[in-house]
Design goal:
The protein is mainly α. 42% of the residues lie in helices and 8% in strands. It is elongated, with a radius of gyration of 32 Å.
Amino acid sequence: AVPGSPVDPRCRGTNLLIKEGAALIENAQDVIDGLKSFDTPKIVAEEPQGFANENEIEFDEQAIESHRDKIINLLSTSPINVDELIRQCELSAMVVSTVMLELELAGRVERYPGNQFALVA
């Protein structure tokens, strides 16, 4: 870094580098010598974050059974986006997704692009 005038705003960067103790680097050995002054960081392996335990996820079969008809009544032969379906029936995404999967596997609804569903005619 070449020092510049302290009143010239264009020289702030180089002057700051010199002020902070910038080192002259001419080759790879200069880099290695400069790194020796730093403490080597200790690498600590973190516990991998996995999926939630089955005990942490509450699966409410009664809610699914009791709301299945409500969801079916909101469906028609015109496709509806699953997010809109969730808003209209005011149920959790898990309940609606589970009911839609059951209906799809039973052949009662058909899935369309854009995560849309419609009753099979």
